[in-house]
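Module 6 notes. Inverse folding takes a fixed backbone as the condition and produces residue identities as the prediction. Think of it as a translation problem where the source language is geometry and the target language is the twenty amino acids. Below is one complete input and output pair. Work through it position by position during the lab.
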């Protein structure tokens, strides 16, 4: 097996280098006239001399070519002044070689050619591909004895150091255009190049108006009337620089939240990252609100206990196995999500009483949805608190609450001032105008251009040549300048390249694992060098962690690597993560690392883990990003891969949860996902089916109608009979009893309740009730039994069941179960016409629903309370309340009991004298019930329609037909209570 160093030796790189080719003039004739042994020794000595001289000037003798050789400068180690070093070496080599004699009076004569270009070199095969070596070889052949010819590309980079003579132009083999030839003279005595590192003390230019606006808002915040600003602009325009200047002006630090690329799918990642800088991660993962509150107090944040409890519930480690069971029920995570956002706002505002606070969110274009909610809530609250909230982003958000401040290019006067600051005095005449035209107002570009020219300028250099210097230096963009900045770091550049593959932020430990032994030994020195060059800086609030000073620097370092090398480094990182030999990275980052490494199965796994973590924190939108990546990566995995089936099932199972939450449980997309999953799952062995029972549940729940749902419920019961887990079998019966009741199969419903509750375990229920339906299975079974017994005309059993249901729900102290029990009781008392009881139960349900932000239950509670008020008093207020509840329920799309609710609606309409509309509502309920398979209330709907028709004076045969149907259907269902009600109306009709 290859060593670590060998495995991670770079296969190559794109880099600008200078090639030097030398050749002995007339070597064949000299050889013929000389003693072969003496000639060989002389040539060998020349090569040794060349290697020494080239090496002394920072170059590398790459290859001996018989009577000549080729050397490179800027390779293997990058060099900022490779071209100048090559010319120096060439002139010294000419001078040294011509004084060395084979025998007195016969010195060697050399020809040397030099050229500079961007090349690609291969470390594995020791090859260099590019224009420079080809052109240098051609130039060497054109040179006069004992002379050097330099290509125009090298001349432009070195003309400040050497005097040149223009030889002319030549047409060289392989080149379409004529090549300009230059002959260098000995080096001038000039001052060395200035440092190109960024000057941290440069005064900000051209943002005085924007800075003044921020300071004004800060002053208002100090008086308790804060505000918020969104600073918008492209990368390099100076957003963070403006924020830094504000901090300097107000002499304060504040709180910073950094949004990161590729973490858009990780909910609340900037806030969690902030917490990790002030609280031990073990405390965050523990889920212990008391410990978190104490840790926050130690950090100077005194928050209420409920704030700490909510935040700790969000940050706690959770069992990912349960994520697939979460459904968009009445107890969706929307309420929890809002609670987390609100608690986070309260935490960040807790210090406002002690003084004004600056809160900054950087790079919001990479923020996740929950972070955006937090940001908007903060901005809305800031206006009444001593808080200034600032966000920086490349793109504007239409829905943002903050005052937008768009940064465009700096005006020419500001650019000139910036250039003068870099130059530390007056720049050459015309240079400021030239840079202003090049940079298009971007301050970072202008600053780097100024550094570039300052390092290469001499007093006699004509301004007309600045553009040629850029072209010949291969500088056409800000990225090119940043790449040259990296090259200026010398051997530390390699460390920056490896770090860039990790990301903008990287730990010393992970970086050390990527480097070879020599690289690890010099790591501290190289990190210091990169920091000195303004390339990296310590990450704020973290130990042993660095970050690239600007994302563009990280991108420049990353793009300088060959694709093959990038992939090999990604592969090494992926291996370290998979084998858990380094601390874990966020799942989204780990997935990206594996994807770039070509390890698609592992990428899918990490992406799935990231999606699960999102779902467990009610971050469904964020989960879609990880699931999309999982889908793409899984498509790259062979179907023969041993984990392909498992990953596919897990992905589909989680996709179903997310799509049902976002699109609705009845959405066509959710149904397609669950149907696809079931086609695959039902072909698997029992153990796999058991492990993926949530897929069965989702498939059942997203059925298009009750009839389909009932058939699927029977499949669930049948397929789960052989499984070992009692909870799984219980939940299969749970599905069956709910659907069977609606289908009018009351005997089967009660049988499923009996068998299911025999498997019930109170401790297991605590773990599972939040996932399967959002309520306790025992509460549900007892409530369903109460309704079934009523319809079967077994009133005593019905009363016993509903009393047990309410009592046990109270013992659970679980909001979802309490609301569920109150709803069953409300439906039961409504059917019995016990209006006062309905009103009392409805008010209890409403209070609980409002406390826990359960929208669907609020709608139902108002419907039942409004109906009860209407039936016992004047119609005005009750009708309005019912209608408001009905409208809210229709908006939320959560009506799973359309038959009874339509019956209630028709009674409301009758009560207020709108009989025709009442009839229409019942007609629709009957049609929908027959089509969907919700049959349990059909006998009552037919009976009620007969009554409304009679009030409207409809034809008697229609009334008799409705009552006959009611009797027939009730009898077929064994619904004795409904049967008796229909028969009584039939008897009255006959007597009338």
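Target side of the pair, the amino acids:
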């Amino acid at each position: 097996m290859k060593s670590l160093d060998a495995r991670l030796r770079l296969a190559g790189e794109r880099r600008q280098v200078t090639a030097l080719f030398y050749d002995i003039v007339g070597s064949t004739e000299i050889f013929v006239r000389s003693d072969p042994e003496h000639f060989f020794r002389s040539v060998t000595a020349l090569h040794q001399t060349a290697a020494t001289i080239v090496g002394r000037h920072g170059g590398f003798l790459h290859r001996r070519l018989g009577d000549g050789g080729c050397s490179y400068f800027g390779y293997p180690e990058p060099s900022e002044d490779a071209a100048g070093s090559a010319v120096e070496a060439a002139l010294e080599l000419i001078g040294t070689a011509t004084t060395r004699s084979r025998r007195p009076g016969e010195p060697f004569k050399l020809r040397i050619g030099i050229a500079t270009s961007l090349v690609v070199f291969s470390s594995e095969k020791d090859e260099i591909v590019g224009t420079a070596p080809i052109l240098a070889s051609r130039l060497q052949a054109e040179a006069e004895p004992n002379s050097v010819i330099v290509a125009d590309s090298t001349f432009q980079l070195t003309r400040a150091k050497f005097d040149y003579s223009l030889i002319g132009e030549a047409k060289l083999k392989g080149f379409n255009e004529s090549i300009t030839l230059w002959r260098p003279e000995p080096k001038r005595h000039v001052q060395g190049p200035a440092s190109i590192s960024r000057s941290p003390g440069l005064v900000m230019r051209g943002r005085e108006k924007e800075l003044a606006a921020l300071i004004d808002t800060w002053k208002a915040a100090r008086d308790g009337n804060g505000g918020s600003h969104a600073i918008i602009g492209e990368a390099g325009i100076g957003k963070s620089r403006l924020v830094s200047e504000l901090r300097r002006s107000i002499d304060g630090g504040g709180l910073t939240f950094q949004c990161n690329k590729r973490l858009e799918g990780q909910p609340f990642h900037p806030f969690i990252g902030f917490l990790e800088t002030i609280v031990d991660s073990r405390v965050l993962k523990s889920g212990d609100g008391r410990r978190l509150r104490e840790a926050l107090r130690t950090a100077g944040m005194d928050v209420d206990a409920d704030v700490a409890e909510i935040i700790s519930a969000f940050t706690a480690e959770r069992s990912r196995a349960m994520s697939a069971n979460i459904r968009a029920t009445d107890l969706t995570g929307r309420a929890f999500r809002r609670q987390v956002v609100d608690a986070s706002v309260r935490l960040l505002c807790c210090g406002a009483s002690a003084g004004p606070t600056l809160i900054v969110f950087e790079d919001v274009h990479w923020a996740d949805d929950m972070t955006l909610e937090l940001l908007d809530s903060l901005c809305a609250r800031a206006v009444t608190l001593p808080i200034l909230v600032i966000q920086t982003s490349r793109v504007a958000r239409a829905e943002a609450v903050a005052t937008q401040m768009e940064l465009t290019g700096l005006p020419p006067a500001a650019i000139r001032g910036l250039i003068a600051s870099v130059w530390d005095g007056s720049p050459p005449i015309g240079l400021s105008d030239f840079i202003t035209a090049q940079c298009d107002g971007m301050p970072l570009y202008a600053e780097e251009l100024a550094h570039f020219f300052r390092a290469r300028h001499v007093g006699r250099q004509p301004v007309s040549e600045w553009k040629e210097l850029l072209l010949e230096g291969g500088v056409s963009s800000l990225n090119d300048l940043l790449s040259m900045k990296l090259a200026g770091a010398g051997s530390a550049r390699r460390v920056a390249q490896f770090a860039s593959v990790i990301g903008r932020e990287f730990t010393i430990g992970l970086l050390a694992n990527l480097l070879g032994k020599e690289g690890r030994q010099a790591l501290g020195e190289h990190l210091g060098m990169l920091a000195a060059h303004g390339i990296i800086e310590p990450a704020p609030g973290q130990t042993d962690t660095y970050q690239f000073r600007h994302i563009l620097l990280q991108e420049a370092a990353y793009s300088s690597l060959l694709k093959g090398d990038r992939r090999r480094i990604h592969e090494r990182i992926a291996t370290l993560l998979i084998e858990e030999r380094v601390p874990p990275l966020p799942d989204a980052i780990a997935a990206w690392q594996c994807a770039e490494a070509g390890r698609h199965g592992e990428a899918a796994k990490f992406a799935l883990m990231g999606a699960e973590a999102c779902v467990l924190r009610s971050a469904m939108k964020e989960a879609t990003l990880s699931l999309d990546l999982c889908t793409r990566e899984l498509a790259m995995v062979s179907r023969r891969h041993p984990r392909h089936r498992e990953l596919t099932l897990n992905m589909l199972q989680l996709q179903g949860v997310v799509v049902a939450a976002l699109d609705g449980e009845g959405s066509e997309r959710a149904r397609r996902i669950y149907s696809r999953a079931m086609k695959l799952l039902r072909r698997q062995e029992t153990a796999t089916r058991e492990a993926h029972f949530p897929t069965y549940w989702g498939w059942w729940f997203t059925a298009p109608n009750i009839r389909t749902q009932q058939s699927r419920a029977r499949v669930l019961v049948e397929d789960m009979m052989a499984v070992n887990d009692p909870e799984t079998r219980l939940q299969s019966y749970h599905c069956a009893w709910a659907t069977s009741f609606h289908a009018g199969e009351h005997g089967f419903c009660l049988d499923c309740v009996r068998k299911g509750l025999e498997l019930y375990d109170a401790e297991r229920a605590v773990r599972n009730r939040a996932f399967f339906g959002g309520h306790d299975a025992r509460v549900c079974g007892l409530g369903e039994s109460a309704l079934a017994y009523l319809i079967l005309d077994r009133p005593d059993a019905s009363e016993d069941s509903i009393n047990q249901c309410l009592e046990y729900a109270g013992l659970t102290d679980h909001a979802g179960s309490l609301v569920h029990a109150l709803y069953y009781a409300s439906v039961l008392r409504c059917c019995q016409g016990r209006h006062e009881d309905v009103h009392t139960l409805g008010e209890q349900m409403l209070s609980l629903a409002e406390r826990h932000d359960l929208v669907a239950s609020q709608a139902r509670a108002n419907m039942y309370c409004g109906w009860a008020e209407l039936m016992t008093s004047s119609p005005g207020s009750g009708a309005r309340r019912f209608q408001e509840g009905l409208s809210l329920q229709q908006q939320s799309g959560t009506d799973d009991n359309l038959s009874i609710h339509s019956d209630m609606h028709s009674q409301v309409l009758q009560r207020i004298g709108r009989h025709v509309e009442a009839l229409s509502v019942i007609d629709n309920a009957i049609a929908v019930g027959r089509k969907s398979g919700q049959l349990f209330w059909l006998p009552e709907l037919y009976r009620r329609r007969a009554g409304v028709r009679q009030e409207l004076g409809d034809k008697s045969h229609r009334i008799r037909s409705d009552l006959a149907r009611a009797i027939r259907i009730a009898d077929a269902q064994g619904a004795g209570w409904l049967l008796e009600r229909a028969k009584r109306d039939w008897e009255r009709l006959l007597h009338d």
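Reference fact for the lab report: The radius of gyration is 39 Å.
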